[in-house]
Write a structure and sequence with these properties.
The chain has about 350 residues and is an alpha/beta fold. The protein has 15 helices and seven strands. The chain folds into three domains: about 180 residues, 3-Layer(aba) Sandwich (Rossmann fold); about 40 residues; about 120 residues, Zinc Finger, Delta Prime, domain 3. Helices cover about 50% and strands about 10% of the residues. The strands form two sheets. It has a five-stranded parallel β-sheet with strand order 4-5-6-2-7, with helices on both faces. Strands 1-3 form a two-stranded parallel ribbon. The longest helix is centred in the last third of the chain and has 26 residues. It starts with 6 loop residues before the first strand and ends with a helix. About 0% of the residues have low confidence. Bound molecules: zinc ion. The site of zinc ion has 8 residues, from α3. Zinc ion binds next to α3.
């Protein structure tokens, strides 16, 4: 690389303060040994981390002023990995200098064994003579011993080894790890900005873009997920429909609605994750009821269900909304306290 500054190709919209900062780190050759990407789910933290890895690993010899070049041996390995997966195969299985670990679906924590293997892989010399990059997804679920093992590595950083921790709840990361990392906080975009991105960069129709930018509340990674996987989107719609319908149903119907949201063979950890997501969707519906109450119709998230929301809102008082919001918060706490997730949702259904 020579002194001329590179420009960068970032895959997602939003959080420009972060992409600009990371670009500067690369151009000034001040790349840290550890970063924390923190912020709510579905803002593209992992996508951006992988993209940063691609940029650091790119082997272009100065002819390209844009990183990643997409053509060098390193970039081609990333490309190969994206061609044969639907988000399931990890790049680390293909690129020798890139490693990623995450919480297993049926586990509560990332284990010390996973972290030891990860650290070992990063300690080997680089296959391509450059950086070694490691990403830890769900870093807020590192077990205590796993966090301690990682801390030792962060305390003795090696040059050209970069670790990116991805966390939605930074409060769950030990302060000793946080203090040794560069913290980058991700924010949702405005609805308008997401709409523009979907129309211009993703070339989708205006109606669909309007719908998704609203439903996703400025979370670009969620919009992409819904675009690429209609089953996921349908399932989201089923979650909010179930909640809206509670108002007109008896207890048995409500419980059966909840039961239909849970596939029969979910592990306990999968059920916990699902229940949290459902509660978040339900909170969105309550927020919409409040927006309707105060006539902020243009801010309504689930406007795909606008007519139904409007009819039901007429039968729900602000007091009802606050009571349901309280029931949802209680359910969230109960899930953390290991109450059966389905049972926690049933208690919300009883609050109607
Ligand atoms: Zn390249």
């Amino acid at each position: 690389m020579n002194n001329t500054d590179f420009t960068f190709d970032w895959p997602l919209v939003g959080n420009q303060h972060i992409t600009e900062y990371l670009g500067k780190c690369v151009n000034n050759k001040h790349v840290s040994g550890a970063y924390i990407f923190s912020g709510p789910d579905n803002l593209g933290k992992t996508t951006l981390a992988k993209s940063f890895a691609k940029i650091l690993l790119c082997k272009t010899e100065g002819a390209d002023k844009k990183l990643p070049c997409g053509r060098c041996s390193s970039c081609r390995q990333f490309k190969d990995s994206s061609q044969n997966n639907s988000g399931q195969t990890e790049i680390s299985e293909i690129h020798g200098d890139f490693h990623i670990i995450k919480k297993a679906k049926d586990k509560k924590n990332i284990s010390i064994e996973q972290v030891r293997e990860f650290i070992y892989s990063l300690s080997l010399s680089s296959f391509m003579g450059g950086y070694k990059i490691g990403i830890i997804k769900h870093a807020d679920s590192l077990s205590l011993s796993a966090a301690n093992a990682l801390l030792k590595t962060l305390e003795e950083p090696k040059s050209k080894v970069v670790i990116i921790l991805i966390a939605s709840d930074m409060d769950n990361l030990p302060a000793t790890i946080v203090s040794r990392s560069q913290i980058l906080r991700f924010n949702p975009l405005g609805i308008e900005a997401l709409y523009d991105y979907l129309v211009k960069a993703r070339k989708i129709g205006r109606e669909q873009a309007k719908e998704l930018s609203r439903v996703c509340l400025g979370r670009p990674a969620l919009a992409i997920k819904f675009l690429e996987n209609s089953e996921t989107y349908d399932f989201y719609k089923q979650q909010i429909e179930t909640f809206i319908d509670f108002k007109e149903q008896n207890i048995n119907e409500r419980f059966s609605g909840i039961n239909n949201l849970f596939a029969p063979k979910l592990s306990n950890q999968e059920s916990v994750k699902l229940a949290r997501r459902i509660l978040q969707a339900w909170q969105g519906v309550l927020r919409d009821y409040l927006l309707l109450e105060y006539s902020f119709n243009n801010l309504i998230q689930n406007y795909i269900k606008f007519d139904k929301l409007k009819i039901f809102k007429a039968r729900i008082s602000v007091f009802d909304i606050l009571r349901m919001a309280k029931a949802i918060r209680r359910a969230e706490k109960n899930i953390v306290a290991n109450v059966n997730p389905k049972l926690a949702l049933e208690e919300v259904a009883l609050a109607f």
